[in-house]
Amino acid sequence: MQTRVKTTNFLLLHFIVFIWGWTAVLGKIITLPFIKLVWIRVFIAMFGMLVYALAKGASLKVPGRSLTRFIGIGIIVGIHWICFYGAVKLSNVSVTLACFSTGTLFTAFIEPVFFKRRILWYEIFFGLVVIGALLMIFNVETQYKMGMALGVGAALTSSLMAVLNGMMMKQEVEENEEMPRVIDAEKKKIKSAHDPAVMSFYEMIGCAFCLSVALIATEPFTGDFFNVSSHDWFYIFVLAICCTTVPFVIGVQILKEISPYTVSLTLNLETIYGILFAFFIFRDSETMSFTFYAGALIILSTIFANAALKSYLRK
Fold first, then answer.
1. pLDDT at position 286, please?
2. Could you give the CA distance from residue 155 to residue 81 in angstroms, rounded to a whole number?
3. How deeply is 166 buried, as exposed, middle or buried, from its count of CB atoms within 10 A (0-12, 13-18, 19+)?
4. What pLDDT, on the 0 to 100 scale, is given for residue 208?
5. Which residue has the higher pLDDT, 205 or 190?
6. What is the tens place of the pLDDT at every residue in 87-104?
7. Among 15, 26, 240, 309, who pairs with 44 as Cys (CB 3.0-4.6 Å)?
């Protein structure tokens, strides 16, 4: 039974990674400025998560401490989206996703801090190799330096977000073990606090707050703020519902069974999917130098070598 559950979660993980492979492409297709784009996206996604949570009968009442944590993680999500879509707009899909693939190495350093385990020597080695590959790309694709910096920022915040959500789900397991010693009312509060739909909804509130501050600081509201073309509205809804609400809820759920490191590692397939999708859709604007592809290949090879070595040592 446990094996079947784990297999199902791995299949769900690959499903949402395939969907996320389209997010950078959609960000490029949508013509809005990136902060305005993610601001509209988050409110649509937040409403979708609220409808889903209420439809499944989940209670929105959560302990104050959990609420604060969810809002905090949501703010990190907001920063992540600003970096990710800023990188797409200031460079292109291929550059953004190549830099975003460094997230696994960030997770290799961040996860030990939060889960209280030591950092392994080969993780440091692989981290240095990735930094070398990034510097190689930086030196050639000089016109995309700001986009690359934002891409790395998106990878860092994505790793932090996955680790923190993983800790929250781990806490749920520990608190469920304490259930016999907790009164019924408190049981319901703890259970609802860690429902993936409820967690995702409150994280989206934190994300919306972060993006609202960024939007007010960069693009004050005017009368034509919502004057968005039907073309953009269609793709924003696809991005918000199909590529945000659905995978976000699934992504939080599977962290019960799959470690943040494994999730981060699998996310590198998003880079492969995204670059392939972008090449066939945008063609010329996604054609990069040989050095770029060599650097991207080094990054991906390093990440998968890290995974293979971990698996070998574990056996």
1. 66
2. 10
3. buried
4. 94
5. 205
6. 999 988 888 888 888 887
7. 240
DSSP the chain: -HHHHHHHHHHHHHHHHHHHTTHHHHHHHS-S-HHHHHHHHHHHHHHHHHHHHHHTT------HHHHHHHHHHHHHHHHHHHHHHHHHHHS-HHHHHHHHTTHHHHHHHHHHHHHT-PPPHHHHHHHHHHHHHHHHHHHH-GGGHHHHHHHHHHHHHHHHHHHHHHHHHHHHHHHHHTGGGS-HHHHHHHHHHT-HHHHHHHHHHHHHHHHHHHHHHHS---TTTT---HHHHHHHHIIIIIIIIHHHHHHHHHTTTS-HHHHHHHTHHHHHHHHHHHHHHHGGGG---HHHHHHHHHHHHHHHHHHHHHHHHH-
CA–CA gap between residue 56 and residue 48 (Å, rounded): 13
- Higher-confidence residue of 101 and 160: namely 160
Provide the residue type at 29 as one letter.
Answer: I
CB 134 within 8 A of CB 314: no
Predicted confidence (pLDDT) per residue in 200-217, tens digit: 899 999 999 999 999 888
Closest alpha carbon to 243 in 6, 30, 5, 8 = 30
For residue 34, give both structure tokens.
């990136």
pLDDT beyond 50 at 142:
yes
